[in-house]
């Protein structure tokens, strides 16, 4: 079986600025990954490169066995679901949640394609899976931030992607909304046929048991990558964030403290 994702020597430079510096990364079948790093470490640029919105300077990568540069990336994007707050501004205020979800089937923002009864039934099932079926006819403007994030996940799943990227999905959520959201991700990960998940975050507290592997970035370089049990250590996080950090674990969740003496 092909790996979900393979990245080799990926480099992105713009002018004299090196944004990504020789990134190697692989997502195998059955793996869910966290990308962890400080602001400016290259997380967003890596995502843009993988989704075809940022052309690499060197290196190679493939998604689902299809190599960038030798495949129609517009078609392949339908197999890569992306949940990002950047989409929010493009969704019409009066669009109801069900239509927002259906728009994911067509990779549209502001749904205009003709839809079917089957489309509406599929979208409602996804909203139900994420615990927000009650929002189906609610307008976007009247959704809370946490509700919007769940609707955007349902939207991303509408095209039945093999890879789902969650780009800082907890930004702007209060602690209670964040925990409800993360529990929803756990339920999604346990579903039969669920896509491979990639969570982009600054916060180890958001790493739930669903995530098996971690990629740590600093200044466009990979600090380390591999199973969470091996990669998530105080020493690695100190190197990643450039500050003395102490990692602790409570149950199956992580927390971090600044180690100042």
Largest sheet: 6 strands, mixed
The low-confidence parts are none
The strand line-up of the biggest sheet is 6-7-8-3-9-10
The secondary-structure class comes to: alpha/beta
How far from one another are the termini?
50 Å
Which band does the percent of strand residues land in?
Answer: 25-35%
Q: How much is the radius of gyration in Å?
A: 18 Å
Task: Count up the helices.
Answer: 8
- Summed over residues and divided by their number, the pLDDT gives a mean of 89
Q: What is the helix content? A: 25-40%
Shape descriptor? globular
Order of helices and strands: EEEHEEHEHHHEHEEEHHEE
Number of strands: 12
Describe this entry's structure for a reader.
The structure is a single chain. The protein has 8 helices and 12 strands. The termini are far apart. The relative contact order is 0.17. The longest helix has 16 residues. The protein is an alpha/beta fold. α3 packs across α4 and α3 runs parallel beside α5. The radius of gyration is 18 Å and the shape is globular. The chain has a 6-stranded mixed beta sheet, with helices on both faces.
